[in-house]
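Course exercise 7: structure representation. Students receive a sequence record and must write out the corresponding structure in C-alpha cell form. The form below is the worked example handed out in class, using Defensin-like protein (88 residues). Read each field label carefully; the graders check that inputs and outputs are placed in the correct fields and that the protein name is recorded exactly as given.

STUDENT ID: A-19
EXERCISE PROTEIN: Defensin-like protein
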Amino acid sequence: MPKHLGLIQTMSKLSFRLFFAILLISSVCLMMHEVHGQEMCHGRIPGDGSCDAGTCSSQCGQSFPGSQGSCVQTFINRFTCQCTWPCS
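STUDENT ANSWER:
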C-alpha cells in the first residue's frame, strides 16, 4: 500500500475524532447554559410539624405568586411546607 493512502486514512480518522470531540464539547456547553437558566428559588411556610398537601399548595400560591408547594420532611415525623418557583 502506498504511503500517501496510509496518511489519508490517518487524517480521515483524525478528522472524524476531531469532529465528534467538537460536537461533544459544544453539546456540554449548551447543556450548561440550559441548566443555569433553570435556577429555582425556595421558601418555607412555618407550621406545627404536620403538613397537608392541598393547604401547602394554596399557602404557597398566596405567599409566593407562581410557586408550587410540597410537604418536606424536616425531622422524623415532622414536616414543613416548601414553596418552589423559577427565579427571575
